[in-house]
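Q: I'm writing up a methods section and want to include an example of the input and output format. Could you take the sequence below and give the corresponding predicted structure tokens, formatted cleanly so I can copy it straight into the document?
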Amino acid sequence: MALNLLSFAQEKKIIQVATDAEPVAAGKFEPTWESLSQYQAPEWFRNAKFGIWAHWGPQCQPGQGDWYARGMYDEGSEQYTWHTAHYGHPSKAGFKEVIQDWKAENWDPEKLVALYKRAGAQYFFAMANHHDNLDLWNSKYQEWNSLRVGPKKNILDGWAAAARKFSLPFGLSVHASHAWTWFETAQRSDKNGPLAGIPYDGKLTKADGKGTWWEGLDPQELYAQNHELSRGSEDVKSLWSQWDWNNGASIPSQEYCEKFYNRTMELINLYKPDLLYFDDTGLPLYPVSDAGLKIAAHHYNTNMSKHKGKLEAVLFGKVLTDQQKQCMVWDVERGAPDKIQDKPWQTCTCIGDWHYKRSIFENGWYKSAKTVIQMLVDIVSKNGNLLLNIPVRGDGTIDEKEIAILEDIAHWMDVNKESIFDTRPWKVYGEGPVAEFSNPVNAQGFNEGKVKYSDKDIRFNQKDKAIYATVMDVPATAITIKQLGKEKKNGSVKHITLLGSKEKIKWKQLADALVIEKPGFIPNDIALVFKITTVLK
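A: Here is the clean output for your methods example:
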């Protein structure tokens, strides 16, 4: 559980960021948890259920997967080995060279967003920056941005225009609060070999750039490594236990916190996102700074001003306390809770790695459309939304296997979307073997893929007077739904149809179960949706 600001203040000084350059908008919300607890998730978000995310930046250029800019400085790792073979040793060619190599030369945001909408996305997310600290817009607070280096393009302008064209609410993900500790591997040097002891490029200064392609830029504005290392930083995995700035994490400076605050405030003011995602425990830089609280209040107040006093904004955080779940929408990474949640929440996941990984494409390791739909149905039955990342290659395109998965999702949505959008949870979320299996989330989430659905697994939700019962695989025999047996007193069944079929469905409501005969026509090989009308006596 994250510390609150008061208890943290008893041990350390809270970094209070200055707001002169980027003032917090006046309005209903103040930068306190108590004030933020007035938040209510908007109905449009509850209705939307499904969003698609372009988690795309310079770390996609190598095609070597997640956290490349950290892993490439970890001697002996797969990413380090690949980097030295393709770019050179990280004392000579660091991540800044990867940024410069990224050109996004084939990027067509309209084409991609059109496909995402065809696949059923009701909102679209773009990444504004990652832990690699490169801003993907014309940031006046971060000289390392995508207009000055790399593609020399305003990535966010392109995504925002495409989202507007296709009338999709626009979300932005912000990850840069952790660059301070995340890039600590760039302070290392090899322990073995001919370059042992020669520092990697994480400590370079502006003066070191004379005569180079990056002359005039300060590497410390990118790497932020002019500080002592976190406790245990020699273990590349140590960061996982320090995400909330505890357990010996190096604490950011006042300057660093204010720069992050100003960058994010500028981002909100420029793009006025409908959704804002932070890859943080609670809020960014919490509890060491009040920056996140001020950003949250500004996001809500700015949105209310845009919508004439009505709050339509969404803000996501991870590993939230019960109090914090009152203040924003809980995001679960690569997983889902195993019961219905009182408040709307979201799963964020990916069909492959967050950053494009060529070997996943080559080996056919993507999540299938069937897996994605099964996840979506389960999440929606528990009052959640699914945000799905489709990894984008460095050149700005997605591969043919990803396109095929999206087309398969689209075909299922064409027939069954009424069972997803605008629905609400039923009395119970489901039944069957998986529903009887305890699979709680662990910290951020990370419990996906631990169960396998069968035709005995049913998920429920409702809209108007209809109950949607989704069979999570192609049925081999008759479908038995215990929750609609007469003894459950959940209503007398009057009518049943199978979405995507004109066949007359045969069924019997018995004392202990509703039994639906296996249809002669199976409209899809992913998940069958029965629309059931009941009358309560």
